[in-house]
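Quick question, first post here. What does this chain look like in 3D?
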Amino acid sequence: MRNALFYVATDRGSGQVLGTAMWLPPRPLHANESWDSYVQSWWLWLKQVGMNLWYGRGGLNVRRYYIWKESQAEAQREIWTDERGYYFCNIITVLPAAQGRRIGAQLFRVVTDVADEQGVRCYLESSRAEPNIKIYERMGFRLEKEMECDDAGAVCKRSKVVRDFKK
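> Answer (accepted):
Ran it through. Tokens below.
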């Protein structure tokens, strides 16, 4: 995906990957998606379909995915009010053995520092309120909204959090 910002934290001695983050850069609120971005999103979708056909779905429930995506779109319509757009942390992960060493915080800081300089807010979603929300709050995020994605009684709770830029 060419339109995303990817960051990787590695151990300086061994080169082992300790954590990764993928952020989407801000896009003005009412700006149309570029053709390049549109084509890239479809290309990514096609590659995911190919991987699912080759390796199997890996437990992916497609109906739940679309319920979650609609919930995400609804929350973003309500929460994303800044005309400049938002840096969106799409995914961040740190190896369990490396957690507690501030690696995740460093993967956040690389983008939140730029967001502060540009005067742009940041946004992310979490399916684990505990302990994630407290961790995000220490980095300046605040819980904006909680939502439930309900698939015939199977409920997934999603926390939507926002970070205002620091002046």
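The beta strands are 5-10, 17-24, 86-94, 121-126, 141-151, 154-163.
Residues 35-55 form the longest helix (21 residues).
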